[in-house]
Structures
1.
Amino acid sequence: MPAARKTTTIEPTAQPTPRSGRNRRLAIGGAVVATLTLTLAGCGDKFAEPFKDAPRSGNENGAPMDLIRMADGFSNVGAKCDGPNRVYVVYHGDNKYGSLAVVANDPRCTK
């Protein structure tokens, strides 16, 4: 008996149709638009309102501060009275950090 011959058939691979490529591009584009919309909606208030400060009472203390300038490389100090309290602000140039201290009922602030 002769040996059985093996035959192999090669099936053609499925090629994406132009329609499935278009659908994929639309889905990716929709996901990008949705992500951008949610991102911009989350920080939209910051663009509409430039000053997100605490509510103001209408009473402004426009008096100048007493400035203490330190040597280069050290933080500077500003102090002024706010009612009966003395407020000290420590800052370093235009950097985004600093600290605040309050001396309650400072005798220099009584009038």
Note: The radius of gyration is 35 Å.
2.
Amino acid sequence: MAKNADAKRMKILEAAKRRFAHYGLAKTTMAEIAQDLSFSKALLYYYFPDKNRLYAAVFEMAVDEIITETTEKINKAKDVNEAMEAFLATRLTVIKDNFNIFEFTYTLRNEMPSDIESVLPSLFEKEIQQVALILNKGIATKELEVEEVELTAKILLISLLGMRIGILQEFRNLFLPPTKEEFDYILSLQKKLAKIFIKGLRV
């Protein structure tokens, strides 16, 4: 029974992810998701009491996909610079490809539903661990010397994320989704910032 329930939950998340990725939260209804699955709305609500809870679960699943993909790329990287570039490029590509799922973290809406907001600290912590993984790789290859890995990873990640806000302010689009050009510009400057930061940690 538990396996059945897990399989149904995963089907719901996959169907909801397709809908949210294409239409976004506002333009997707629970009825449409249920119809895509040939489920009753009652069954859908049994697993997810409302659309925000479902969206939060899809968001978390998308975050886990980023973490899995970036971890694989970091582990395959030959050195710390390659690992950092892989992390930044993979992360931004997945966000760009699934922008409607990540829209709340970019539009900075003041009235973000609490179910979605509650997932954001988890995303931040997971990304700190990704940057820490890169720093530890640099320590293992004797490229870097880092005294406080977690704190250093946090400082670097905050700097990289803060750059996005600065760039959107520069384009005067702080409350609008970034364009493809802005995404590319964000990535290019993040890579430069990361290189400068990493250079300061070299042995």
Note: The two ends are 55 Å apart (CA to CA).
